[in-house]
Structures are given as structure tokens and as C-alpha cells.
Design a protein that fits this description.
The protein is α/β, with parallel strands linked by helices. Helix content is about 45%, strand content about 10%. It is built from 27 helices and 18 strands. It has an 8-stranded mixed sheet, sandwiched between helices. Helix 1 packs across helix 2 and helix 21 (about 540-545) packs antiparallel against helix 22 (about 550-560). Bound molecules: ligand A1D88. Ligand A1D88 binds near residues 464, 533, 536 and 537. It is an enzyme of class 4 (lyase).
């Protein structure tokens, strides 16, 4: 931010509908003074009531740090546009999706808002450049595209219009970060921005296939959900968002409309809102596809067209591959980013598929993006090649991981963050592999202790990633206990720092650690039984050894959550601590672990873990051998000397 630009303190939100009041609410939660404006007093009051209702709900769920009344008190309401924006540092327009309406609003805002205010539109489909043209200061206008509902959705696209300056975009980006949300830059004003551009083929390609009799609706939905792990099928999603919406987007862009889509719109079958769309919700069972319907669907075709769209965006400098992947995960709930998935499939395979489709159908939409061709010609064909859209670790360990973050500090503390907050840090195969890779590659001699934690403020981890679970072939599923065994056997003390849900495989990971500390708001459980499974990552065995028989079986058989207090009372965790003391308590534990004698800690861990499965005599024998060995170490000399001198010992692990 330039020195002459004001800190954002006051935000004016124009439009009190679903998006407007949602944006006003998240801004108020983040501490901004907000003015919510709409043309009609009743609409503004409805919007304000929705904010109050939503804040109460957040407070009930323990997801608000303040009293809801105090947050709501930061939102003022008005119908006077000039009054709303005259003191605003940031104006966010969230009116109807009509260019002329938005241009009228921006013209008025331009006349009334301070000269240095940032002017944003929440448009999801209109041109930022054309909206900005209604002002005398298009350089200060940008898109801030929140997703619905803003309170729940983490992603915001920060979009440049043609004249938007870097300073303007950066101020918008930093504002979004200050809301605790995740911004991605969309550096050119392209139709659909990033998320809707890539989501387009997810919905339209299956529609072309069904229109041509190459697939059925249920087959496509079942395959994309149960085989490829998407949260919804393309037709199910079309019914939810409204088939007419996709239809209008395509016609306005001058793009052909798949016949099945056109037919539905002509017949007024627009989806859930009309009771019938691709599925019948009034007289039928709605989206009633089952996993078995998926057989034979060419999902590669859909994913190839999506990857091609992503390649166009990267090649045209609209967005980076990282931004696209973040956008698709947080904005569309995809299990992984489109670029990352394309890299896993292999960009050469994707290119081949597009060329084959192009030969077969001679349609522009299969024309490979220049950037995709360049990557393949340069040998950057994806994960296996070490580089594709992204760069990959080539097997020599300690790479830049995708689903975990890690840091090894000078004291030897290795912090590992499970980083899939939009999926409650669910443990995917990739995440499990990355933890194993990290622990096997890091130099043990430099590590004195390991702390695992979950990203975000909702979960340590809500378990194994359930997406596509039902359809997974057991023979193809990698050994689920690998990661848990690696953690359990890691030769340094490990600690799980738990704040939020700790369920299923998440709890199994925590149980594989030596120590577990949790905030009192955390919840524990093995819900696997409710899915027809059992805790398959060592959970049954560790729980039965750690708890009484009755308690372990209660956890596994009932699948219920238990509170952190009960978990501590049962001995499942070491402590349940109030949130405001949590960091201090974790710090005290960690200090002891990283400053303790490394060899003695390593031996103690091993003797205790292995001895527990042996007879008492065998365990005592292991203990006495370890004790004798420790007597020969420098650390013992240091420990006893420090005791005699009444000072803190400095153990070197020698
Ligand atoms: C061998 C080991 C096997 C296992 O571990 S099996 C898995 C066992 N775990 C579970 O069954 C827990 C599943 N999750 C839940 O029950 C709920 O979530 C919570 C109670 C943890 C939280 O509920 P709420 O506050 O309503 O949040 P939300 O909308 O359900 O979750 C936010 C997003 O996170 C995704 N998610 C949550 N858990 C998982 C998971 N385990 N695998 C994959 N995704 C998960 C959701 O789907 C959703 O995503 P979207 O926002 O796109 O709808």
C-alpha cells in the first residue's frame, strides 16, 4: 500500500441481498465498520436480520470470538447511496447482475466516494472493465468475487479490469486476507474469471456427451462423484445452480449450447427451483444415481477439456496454476486442483486425448491450448516427469509438498501442518504419502521433536478423505497404515496439537503420536462404523491398548464424538486446555521435548512402545539394556554435572 492510501476502516456494501449481507457480515466479523445499503428500507432490514441470525448461529457453534450483538452493532443500514459511500475506504457493489444497473451504481459511487477509495464489484459474470468505464477512475476499480455464501466460502477472486493498477489489486487482495479468506489473483478480465471458466467444461462436456447419446446423465454423475471424487455430479450441479444460468452464460458468450441443456430450458425444466431439471425432484427421487451407474463413462474426456481450459488461463497470464488449483478447491469444492490432477494424469496423455477428440469431432473446444503443447514439447508432462503445470519433488525428499507445510527450526522442532482446511484437513493418499516422504527424508539428527497440527481453525483432521471412498478398489488402495506406522515409529518424540475435530484417521494419526494436547472445544471420535467401516489406521489396536476395553469399544462401536474433557478423563489425550492457554501449554511441552536428552528420549520411546507388546520380563530386559547404554553417553555426564552446578543441562545427543 502506498503511504498516501488510507488503511481500510469503513466498508460500504451496496446491495443487501444474499451476497451483499453475507459480505457485510464477514467484514463486520473482521472488525470493519460497515454500511449496508439497498434501494428499499425493507430489503436492507431483511439483510440486517439475516446478518443477526447468521451471527447467532456462528456464536452457537462457537465460531465467533465476540458477542454477536457487538459484531452486528458495527453494521449500519441506509437507503441513501451517497451517505453510504461518502466516508467509505472501500465500496463493494453487490447489486443485480445487469451491466446497466451496475454502471448506474458505479457512476453514482464515483461522484460520492472519497477520491482514494477502492471501488469493487462482486459481479460473478460481467466485465470489470465495462463496469469501471462508468467511472472517471477505472484504475481504482476491481472485482472482488465472493462465493455463495460468503460466510462459509473461503475463496475470493481478485480481478483486474483493463485499467486496474497493481496497487488497487494489492489493496483488494490484502483486504480479503484481513477477512481470513483466501484471495486469488485473476489478472485479466476474462469471462467467468477462473473458477467458472474451469467449471464450464465440467458441466458442458458431459452435456455434449449425453446429447450425442455417448453417455447417460446418471452415468456421468456417478462417475465424476464416485470414481473421480468430485463433490457433485455435473448434472446434479446444473440442477442446483439452475440450468438456465449455464444456458445464458453460454449464449451471452456466443458459445454453442449442448442440445440437452437447450431442451431443458425450452421446456422450463430449470432444475431444483422448478421441481424438475435433469432429475425429477417433484415426482421422482431427485439425483438418484448410484456408484454402479458409472461404468464405462469417459471421465478422461471431461478432465482433459477442463485441463485445457486451465492451460489457456495460465498461458494467457490470467492466473497461475497455483491460483487455479486453490480456486477450484475452495470455490468449487474439488478434491484437488485441476492443474495438479492433470499433472497426475500426465499432460501428454491429456494432449493425446484432446487431439483424438479433435480428430473425431472437429470441434474448436478440443483445440489444445498453446501452453499445454509447449509444456509437453518441453518434456514437462506432469508429476512423473518432475514438472508439469507445477514443479515436483523428484524423489530426493524434502520437496515442496502440496497438502502439508513443514518447518524445521534451529532448536530442532519439526512442525508439520496438515493443510487441507477446506476439507477439514482430511487425510488423502497424497497427504499420507507426503507425511511419510517428509519423515523419511528429513535428517533425524537435526530433529529433536515433531509437532503435528491442522491448518485453519476447525479441525486437526476430520479423518480419511471420504471422497470417492465407496468406489475405491481395495487392491489399489495403498497400505493405509503406512503413515500411522511411520509416525508411531519416528525416532523422536511426536506431539499432536489438536484444535477442533479429530476424527477417524485424524484421531488415528494423533494416537500414533506420543503425546496429544487439545483445546477444550475439540471433539474426538471414530465415525468409521457409521460408514460401514472400522478405524483402519491402527485405531482399533491403539485404542484398545490405551483405554479400558469398554471405552475403546464404545468409541469404535458407537461412532459418537466425545468432548476433549472426556478424552482427557479417559486417557485418550494428555490434556484438554482452554483456547487462551493452549499455546502456552503446547510451548511448555515442546520446550521439554526439544531441550531433553535426544538419545534418552529416543530410547525411552522405543522401550515403552516395543516393551508394551512384550512380557514384563522382556520389557524390563529392554529397559535395562537401554539404561546401561545411556550411562555411556555424554548427555548423562552433562545431566549430572548440570544437576550438581544447579544449572539447566545442555544436551547434545552424544
Ligand atoms: C481408516 C480411516 C477412515 C476414516 O477416517 S473415514 C472418515 C471418518 N470421518 C468422518 O466421517 C467425518 C466426516 N466429516 C464430518 O462428519 C463433518 O464434516 C464434521 C462433523 C467434521 C464437520 O461438520 P460441518 O461443520 O457441518 O462441516 P462440513 O460442511 O461437513 O465440512 C466442511 C467441508 O469439509 C469436507 N469434509 C469433512 N470431512 C471430510 C472427510 N473426512 N473427507 C473429505 N471431505 C471432508 C466436507 O465435505 C465439506 O466440504 P464442502 O464444503 O465441499 O461441502
Amino acid at each position: 500500500m502506498r503511504a498516501d492510501q488510507p488503511e481500510i476502516a469503513t466498508v460500504a456494501v451496496l446491495g443487501a441481498g444474499t451476497m451483499g449481507h453475507g459480505i457485510a457480515e464477514v467484514a463486520a466479523i473482521a472488525g470493519y465498520d460497515v454500511v449496508l445499503r439497498d434501494i428499499d428500507a425493507a430489503i436492507v432490514e431483511d439483510g440486517y436480520d439475516e446478518i443477526e441470525w447468521s451471527l447467532e448461529k456462528l456464536a452457537e457453534k462457537g465460531r465467533l470470538d465476540e458477542d454477536p450483538d457487538d459484531v452486528a452493532a458495527r453494521v449500519a443500514t441506509t437507503t441513501d447511496l451517497e451517505a453510504a459511500v461518502s466516508d467509505a475506504d472501500l465500496v463493494i457493489e453487490a447489486g443485480p447482475e445487469q451491466l446497466s444497473v451496475k454502471q448506474d451504481i458505479f457512476e453514482s459511487v464515483d461522484a460520492a466516494a472519497p477520491a482514494d477509495a477502492l471501488l469493487a464489484t462482486n459481479s460473478s459474470s460481467l466485465s470489470i472493465t465495462e463496469i469501471a468505464a462508468a467511472t472517471e477512475r477505472p484504475e481504482s476499480v476491481l472485482g472482488l468475487h465472493f462465493f455463495n455464501p460468503p460466510v462459509k466460502m473461503d475463496l475470493v477472486e481478485v480481478i483486474y479490469g483493463k485499467a486496474t493498477t497493481d496497487e488497487t489489486a494489492q489493496r483488494g487482495y490484502e483486504f480479503i486476507e484481513s477477512l481470513g479468506k483466501t484471495p486469488i489473483y485473476v489478472r485479466k478480465d476474462v469471462r467467468g474469471f477462473v473458477v467458472n471458466s474451469v467449471l464450464g467444461p465440467f458441466m458442458s462436456e458431459p452435456a455434449w456427451m449425453v446429447s450425442a447419446g455417448e453417455a447417460t446423465i446418471r452415468q456421468a454423475d456417478a462417475a465424476m462423484v464416485h470414481e473421480r471424487g468430485y463433490p457433485m455430479g455435473p448434472f446434479e450441479l446444473g440442477d442446483l445452480t439452475g440450468i438456465d444460468i449455464g444456458y445464458h452464460v453460454r449464449t451471452e458468450a456466443g458459445r454453442p449450447v449442448p442440445p440437452i441443456m437447450a431442451e431443458k430450458v425450452e421446456n422450463g425444466n430449470l432444475g431444483r427451483k422448478t421441481g424438475e431439471g435433469y432429475y425429477d425432484y417433484d415426482d421422482g427421487d431427485g439425483s438418484d444415481y448410484v456408484p454402479e451407474d458409472s461404468e464405462g463413462f469417459d471421465h478422461r474426456r471431461v478432465e482433459a477439456v477442463m485441463a485445457n481450459e486451465a492451460a489457456k488461463l495460465v498461458g494467457d497470464d490470467v492466473a497461475t496454476a497455483e491460483a487455479i488449483d486453490t480456486g477450484m478447491q475452495l470455490g468449487a469444492g474439488f478434491p484437488e486442483g485441476t492443474c495438479r490432477r492433470a499433472d497426475d494424469i500426465g499432460l501428454d496423455t491429456i494432449l493425446e486425448k484432446l487431439r483424438a477428440l479433435s480428430d473425431e469431432h472437429s470441434d474448436d473446444r478440443y483445440e489444445p491450448a498453446d501452453y499445454l503443447v509447449e509444456l509437453v514439447e518441453a518434456g514437462h508432462t506432469g508429476t512423473e516427469a518432475g514438472r508439469g503445470f507445477h514443479e515436483y519433488d523428484t524423489g530426493d525428499g524434502l520437496g515442496d509438498y502440496h497438502t502439508i507445510n513443514w518447518e524445521l527450526d534451529d532448536d530442532g522442532l519439526l512442525e508439520v501442518e496438515l493443510d487441507r482446511p477446506s476439507r477439514m484437513n482430511a487425510i488423502s493418499e497424497t497427504l499420507a504419502d507426503e507425511v511419510v516422504d517428509l519423515l523419511s527424508s528429513v535428517d533425524d539428527d537435526e530433529v529433536r521433536a515433531v509437532v503435528f497440527e491442522g491448518a485453519g481453525d476447525r479441525a486437526f483432521s476430520a479423518g480419511a478423505d471420504i471422497s470417492g471412498f465407496a468406489d475405491r478398489d481395495p487392491a489399489q488402495t495403498s497400505e493405509p497404515t503406512d503413515v500411522f506406522t511411520t509416525v508411531a515409529e519416528y525416532p523422536r518424540p511426536t506431539l499432536a496439537r489438536i484444535d477442533g475435530y479429530c476424527l477417524g484417521a485424524g484421531l488415528e494419526l494423533a494416537l500414533a503420536c506420543d503425546l496429544r494436547l487439545a483445546t477444550t472445544d475439540s471433539e474426538f471420535g471414530f465415525p468409521e462404523i457409521t460408514l460401514g467401516l472400522l478405524p483402519g489406521g491402527g485405531g482399533t489396536q491403539r485404542a484398545i491398548r490405551m483405554l479400558t476395553d469398554a471405552r475403546a469399544k464404545e468409541l469404535v462401536f458407537r461412532g459418537e464424538h466425545i468432548s476433549a474433557e472426556r478424552a482427557a478423563d479417559w486417557g485418550l489425550i494428555n490434556r484438554a486446555v482452554d483456547a487462551d492457554e493452549f499455546d502456552d501449554v503446547v510451548g511448555e511441552f515442546v520446550d521439554d521435548l526439544v531441550s531433553g536428552p535426544p538419545i534418552a528420549l529416543r530410547k525411552a520411546k522405543r522401550v515403552m512402545n516395543e516393551g508394551a507388546d512384550e512380557s514384563l520380563d522382556a520389557g524390563l530386559e529392554m529397559e535395562s539394556q537401554a539404561f546401561a547404554l545411556l550411562l555411556t553417553t555424554d548427555d548423562v555426564a552433562e545431566g549430572t554435572a548440570a544437576f550438581a552446578a544447579d544449572r539447566e543441562p545442555e544436551f547434545e545427543g552424544e
